[in-house]
Amino acid sequence: MKVSKAIKNVNKANHFKFLAPLLLALSCGVAQAVEQPLDRIAVIVDDGIIMHSQYVQRLAEVKHNLGKSGVEIPPDQVLSQQVLDRMVLEQIQLQLGDNLGIRISDEELNQALENIAARNQMSMAQFAQAVVEDGLSMQQLRDQVRQEMIISRVRQYQVGERAQVSEQEVKAFLASTLGQLQLSEDYHLANIVIALPDSPDAEDIAQARQRVSEIQQQLANGVSFAQLAISYSASENAFEGGDMGWRKAAQLPPPFDTLVSELKVGEVSEPVRTSGGIILLKLLDKEGVDQVHTEEVHVRHILIKTSAVRDSEQAQQLAAQLHQRLLAGEDFAELARQYSQDPGSARDGGDLGWMEPDDLVPEFRQMMAASKIGQLSAPFATQFGWHVLQVLDRRVTDSSEQAREQQALQLLHNRKYEEELQIWLREIRDEAYVEIKQL
Fold this sequence. Notes:
The protein is an alpha+beta fold. It has helices at residues 3-6, 16-27, 52-69, 76-99, 106-119, 124-133, 138-159, 167-175, 177-182, 202-220, 225-232, 256-259, 312-327, 332-339, 343-346, 362-370, 400-431, and strands spanning 41-45, 48-51, 185-195, 243-247, 272-273, 277-288, 293-304, 351-355, 380-382, 385-398, 434-436. Strand 9 and strand 10 (385-398) form a beta hairpin.
C-alpha cells in the first residue's frame, strides 16, 4: 500500500532530481559555482511568512498526487489559488498553536508514525522504505505529521468547547424519527462547496449559482465529481476529490441530514444554500448497522489483601485455606462476609453482580473465562491481592440501546464540531493579516 494513501497531503516532492545537476557537475570536475535562484517571501501571514519555495513545492506536490490518482489537473490559476488558501489557513493555525504553547514531543510523534505503519500492516522498517519509494524523506514526513498534529490539537482547543451536547439533546435525538433513521446507516460522501461571503449581496449569490449550474452541466457531460471538487470546491477536502469519508447523516447540518437518506449510491444532491455557501453532496456508498451484543458474567469472589501485617505469601495461604473450606462445603457467602476485604461486595456475600469482562483486570478476566458455571476457581493473584471466585451464570445482552446513546452523543458532537469548525476557520482567516508579495 502506498504511503500517499495513508497520509493526507504528505509531501512527496522528489528532491533528488534537483540535486542531480549539482552531483553531475561535481563528478565531472566542473569548477564553476552552480547558480541557485534566490528564495523570496511569497506571502506574509500575521507574524509568519510563506516562502516562494514552499509554495512552489506544495503546488508541485498537489499536482504530483493528482497525477498519480488519475484525476485531470485543473488549470494552474485555479489550482494555485486553492493551494495558497490552504497554506494561509495552515500558517494561521500553526501560529495559534505556537501562541498556545502546543508542542508535540518526539515520543508522541514516534507513536503516531508507528500507528500509521500499523494501520498499513507494516513494520517501521517497511514503512520507512515505502516513504522513500514514494519520494519522501522520513524527516519531511515527521515534519508534516507534526504540523498536522499541532493543527488538530489547536482545533480541539479552539472549537471543541463550542460543540457541547446535552443529555436532553441526545434523548430528543434518539426519540425523533430522524434520529432513529440516521443511526441505521453509514454514508460515504463527497462534497463540492461553492463559498459565499458572510453577507453576500445579490451579485455574489448570482455568481455562485452560475458556478453551481456550470458544475451540474459538467457532471451531466460526464466530468467526474472528484475532478470538479478539485477545481472548484472551497472545502478543505477539495484535493481529495471532495471525499468526506464515512459519516452518519446526523453528523451533517440540516437539511443534509435528511437529504442524504434519500440519495441512491452514485447520485448527486440538488444544490443547497447554507451559511457557508452552496453545497452539492454525492453519495459514494452506504452500509447498515449491526446489533451490539455484550457478554456478561454473574460472579462472586473473596479477596484477601496484603498489608503491613500480612505479606503476599500469608495472603496466599489464607486464600488456599478458604478454598479448601469451600470445597468441603462451607457457605461461600458466609466466608465472604467474614473474610473478604472487598468492601463493595463482602456485605453481599462476595457478589459482584453482572459484570462485563472488559471492565475487569486481565488476571480476573482470564480466570473467570476459564471457570465453568458453578465451578470454584483456584486461588489466584491480581494487583489487588489474592482471590477465589465462582461464576454463577453467564448471559449475552443486547446493548444496542446503550451503544445508540453513545453513538448519538458522538454524532451530535461531530455535527456541531463541523459547523463550528467552518465558522472558526472563516473567522481566523478574516481576522488575519495576509499580504501576497509575489508568487
